[in-house]
UniProtKB/TrEMBL annotation:
It comes from the Eukaryota. Residues 272-333 form the GHMP kinase C-terminal domain. It comes from Coemansia javaensis. This is Homoserine kinase. It is an enzyme of class 2 (transferase). Its EC number is 2.7.1.39. InterPro entries: GHMP_kinase_C_dom (IPR013750), GHMP_kinase_C_sf (IPR036554), GHMP_kinase_N_dom (IPR006204), GHMP_knse_ATP-bd_CS (IPR006203), Homoserine_kinase (IPR000870), Ribosomal_Su5_D2-typ_SF (IPR020568), Ribsml_uS5_D2-typ_fold_subgr (IPR014721). It catalyses: L-homoserine + ATP = O-phospho-L-homoserine + ADP + H(+). The lineage of its organism: Eukaryota, Fungi, Fungi incertae sedis, Zoopagomycota, Kickxellomycotina. PANTHER family: HOMOSERINE KINASE, HOMOSERINE/4-DIPHOSPHOCYTIDYL-2-C-METHYL-D-ERYTHRITOL KINASE.
C-alpha cells in the first residue's frame, strides 16, 4: 500500500564550551525528510536508480553541492547501510525521498548528525524494522563517531552522552529473557552480515542522559557565511592534553550540567562554566573574531547573556541568553564585521532549545 513517512530532525549545538564530544543541545531548526513509497510520483522518480529503488531531491536552500546518488548522499547512504545490516538490500520498490533542510551545512549546527539520524529513521520506517531508540543510536554512532550531536538530535533537549569501549559493549542492564533474545538476534544478524561483508554496530555503544534546561534560555546562533568541515576542525586538536587543562574542563562541565537546569539561571556561574581549554583554543585560527568574542562579552557588559562558545566544531558562535537576544546577536556580529579582509559576513537565528528529538510520522495513502 502506498505510504508517506515524514521525518523531522532538529539541529544541534555540541560541546557547549567544556563538554567536547559529550554535550549537545537540540535546537528549533529542522531537517525534514519525506519518503513516498509506491505512489505514482514515486514510481516515476525512483525509476532512475533501479539498483537501490530510491530517488532523492532537495527543496529550498542548504543543499548546494550535495550528491544525489543513493550511495553517495549521506541520508540515503545511511539508510541503505541500516537496511543492509537488517538483511534488506535496497529501498522498497519506488521510494521517492524529498529533503527540505533548514540546517546550514558545515557551520557547527549538526547538519551531518541530523542527516545521519534522518537516514536511520528513514530505514527504520521504510523497512518496518522496529528498531529501539538505543539501537538507532548504535547505527548513528557507526557513521558519526562522536555521540554529542546524534544523541541530542535523536532524543532532544540538553543531552549528555558517552561511548562505551567498543571492545566491551552492552552494559545496559536487561532481563535474562531480553538478554538471551538480544544475543540470539545479534548472532543471527552477525552471521548474515558476515556473508555480505557488512560491519554491524555492536549493541549499546552509546549512552545518554537528558538534563534539565531552564525554559527561559534561548540559543542565539551567529552563523558565519563560510563552511568549516568538522573533520578539519578536529584535525586542529592536539593528541595529548595537560592535566591542568583537562581538570579545568571537568570542573566546569560538572557545574554546567546542573546550572542550565535552574529555573532562574545564574549568569556568572554559567558564563564561567562555559569556558573551555580542550577544543576552542586550538580552533581560534579557523574562526576570525572568535578570540575577541570569547574575551569581550560577559554578563556584566551584555545584559541577558549567560555564556558564549563555539557551536560544535564551528564556525557558528552560540550565545545562551535569557533576554536581549537581538542586541546580543548584534554585538557578536559587529565583531565579525570588523575582522581583516572585509570582515566575516554572518546571519543569526534566535532558537528555542527543543525537548523533542527526531520524529517520524507514517501515513498510508
Ligand atoms: N541534509 C544533508 N544531506 C546530505 N548530506 C548532508 C546533509 N547535511 C550534511 N550533510 C553532509 O555533511 C557535511 C557537513 O558535515 P560537517 O562537516 O560535520 O558539518 P556540520 O557541523 O554541519 O555537521 C556536508 O558537507 C554534507 O557532506
Ligand atoms: N564534538 C564535535 C562536535 C562537532 O559538531 P558539528 O556540529 O560541528 O558537526 C567537535 O567539536 O568536533
Amino acid at each position: 500500500m502506498p505510504a508517506r513517512h515524514t521525518i523531522n530532525v532538529p539541529a544541534t549545538s555540541a560541546n557547549i564550551g567544556p563538554g567536547f564530544d559529550v554535550m549537545g543541545l537540540s535546537l528549533s531548526l529542522y531537517l525534514t525528510v519525506t519518503a513516498e513509497v509506491g505512489t505514482a510520483a514515486a514510481v516515476a522518480a525512483a525509476a532512475a536508480d533501479a539498483d537501490s529503488n530510491v530517488s532523492i531531491a532537495y527543496e529550498g536552500g542548504n543543499a548546494a553541492g550535495l550528491p544525489l546518488g543513493a550511495r553517495a548522499n549521506l541520508i540515503t547512504r545511511t539508510a541503505l547501510y541500516v537496511l543492509e545490516c537488517n538483511g534488506v538490500g535496497r529501498f522498497p520498490e519506488a521510494t521517492a525521498v524529498t529533503v527540505a533542510n533548514r540546517i546550514p551545512l558545515g557551520r557547527g549546527l549538526g547538519s551531518s548528525g541530523a542527516a545521519v539520524v534522518a537516514g536511520v529513521l528513514l530505514a527504520n520506517a521504510v523497512g518496518a524494522l522496529g528498531l529501539t531508540e538505543q539501537r538507532m543510536l548504535d547505527y548513528c554512532l557507526m557513521i558519526e563517531h562522536h555521540p554529542d550531536n546524534v544523541a541530542a538530535a535523536l532524543v532532544g533537549g540538553f543531552v549528555a552522552s558517552y561511548l562505551v569501549d567498543v571492545d566491551r559493549p552492552g552494559n545496559i542492564p536487561v532481563s535474562e529473557a531480553d538478554e538471551a533474545d538480544l544475543a540470539r538476534r545479534e548472532r543471527e544478524q552477525r552471521a548474515a552480515a558476515a556473508d555480505r561483508s557488512i560491519n554491524l554496530p555492536p549493541e549499546n555503544i552509546g549512552h545518554f542522559l537528558r538534563l534539565g534546561c531552564s525554559p527561559r534560555i534561548r540559543a542565539i546562533a551567529i552563523i558565519p557565511q563560510f563552511e568549516l568541515a568538522t573533520a578539519k576542525a578536529r584535525a586542529a586538536l592536539p593528541g595529548t592534553y595537560k592535566t591542568a587543562d583537562v581538570v579545568f574542563n571537568l570542573q566546569r562541565l560538572a557545574v554546567l550540567t546542573t546550572a542550565l537546569g535552574r529555573e532562574t539561571p545564574d549568569p556568572w556561574l554559567i558564563y564561567r562554566a562555559m569556558e573551555d581549554k580542550v577544543h576552542q583554543p586550538y580552533r581560534m585560527h579557523l574562526v576570525p573574531g572568535l578570540p575577541e568574542i570569547l574575551r569581550s562579552l560577559n554578563p556584566d557588559n551584555t545584559p541577558g547573556l549567560l555564556g558564549v562558545c563555539l557551536s560544535g566544531a564551528g564556525p557558528t558562535v552560540l550565545a545562551l541568553a535569557v533576554d536581549n537576544f537581538d542586541a546580543i546577536a548584534a554585538k557578536i556580529r559587529a565583531i565579525f564585521d570588523i575582522q581583516p579582509d572585509g570582515g566575516v559576513a554572518t546571519t543569526y537565528e534566535v532558537l528555542h532549545i527543543v525537548s523533542e528529538g527526531a520524529t517520524c510520522v507514517t501515513e498510508t495513502l
